[in-house]
Amino acid sequence: MTITQLKYVLAVAEYQNFTVASEKCFVTQPTLSMQIQKLEGELSIIIFNRKKKPIQLTAIGEKIIEQAKVIVDESNRINDIVDQQKGFIGGDFKLGIIPTVIPTLLPLFLKSFVKKYPKVNLLIEELTTENIVKKLTEGHLDAGIAATPLENEAIKERVLYYEPFVGFVHDDHRLFSEKQLSVDTLEIDDILLLEDGHCFKDSILNICSPETFGIKSNSNHFKLESGSFNTLIKLSKEGLGMTLLPYLHTLDLKESDKKYLREFNTPTPSREVSIIYHKSQLKIQLVEALKTTIDGIIKGVISFSDVKIISPLQKTMNN
Fold first, then answer.
1. pLDDT band at residue 124 using 50, 70 and 90 as cut-offs
2. List of residues 6+ apart from 141 with CB closer than 8 A
3. CB distance 275 to 291 below 8 Å
4. Is the pLDDT of residue 9 over 90?
């Protein structure tokens, strides 16, 4: 039995296809199939039911996969131990960042991180929280930056900063005259939202009182969900509703648009943004390097203490 064989087994289990798995492992399909058959022969078991389409695990195969994940993770940890002992910070580092964080946070730390750690090959993907967690669990990401808490036992979270929600309220809106917003005055049908899949949308839904759901506070006969804050801002300026923005996004607004911003009274509803990684803590020295870099920069840009953390997890609504 070899680590390579176990990696091949894990790949087939994930992609449910020998050809795709071989491509992901950068070997020929016959080589991958032969090694898996060799492992099955050594163990005198069948790991995959090849008659099923897509390929499925047998009952014993499911147990083998769980143990294989542990063994492969632990084998990878050996390289981490060696790198840490040598003080080496380098190699590929795969990072996922949620869409509502990447345009404001990435420009703040990327140049500094690349300059400080030139031996690191930082591979960045823009992903939803759901996909970040999935890829962390499958070993396809080393870390992620997302809104927390996530309440996932397999994921470790370390807070980077707290980011308040800020209202964008046009001058013909009922709340424009308010100097500060109150959660009690928000009505969910009055707020322009990001589309499904964005945890920022779920956080806004969690801010609003359940009593406001279903209330039609304006005469707009449309429903729109966008993937862009800029689109929501433009629609708000057309008098089609208010919206909520993350604090860092408001820093890049034109000066003429900042008159529409309204902060909340304290404690300010805010999101918690954290660096997250798998509990196996592989490449922890790179995680530490990234967190240290961001910590050194973000404190000069955003620092709030009197906040109320709004969960990004969807609430279960009672009918």
1. very high
2. 94, 95, 96, 125, 132, 135
3. yes
4. yes
Query: What is the C-alpha separation between 275 and 290, in angstroms, rounded?
Result: 9
Give the β-pairing of 191-194 and 242-246. parallel
Considering only CA atoms, which of 179, 181, 105 is closest in space to residue 191? 181
Question: How many angstroms separate the CA atoms of 200 and 196, rounded?
Answer: 9
DSSP result, 198-223: -HHHHHHHHHS-GGGTT---S-----
Q: What confidence score (pLDDT) does residue 282 get?
A: 85
Task: For 224-280, give the DSSP string.
Answer: -EES-HHHHHHHHHTTS-EEEEEHHHHTTS-GGGGGGEEPBPSSEEEEEEEEEEETT
Give 89-112 as a 3 state SS string.
CCEEEEEEECCCCHHHHHHHHHHH
CA distances from 292 to 39, 86, 112, 155, 301 (A): 43, 19, 11, 19, 15
- CA 123 to CA 200: how far, in whole Å? 24
The residue among 219, 175, 180, 225 whose CA lies nearest residue 204 is 225
CB 271 within 8 A of CB 165: yes
* Three-state secondary structure call for residue 38: helix
Tens-place pLDDT, residues 164-199: 999 999 988 999 999 999 998 888 888 888 887 788
Query: Hunting for tokens 């003429």 — which residue is that?
Result: 256
Cβ-based neighbours of 234, under 8 Å, separated by 6 or more: none
CA–CA dist 261, 308 (Å, integer): 19
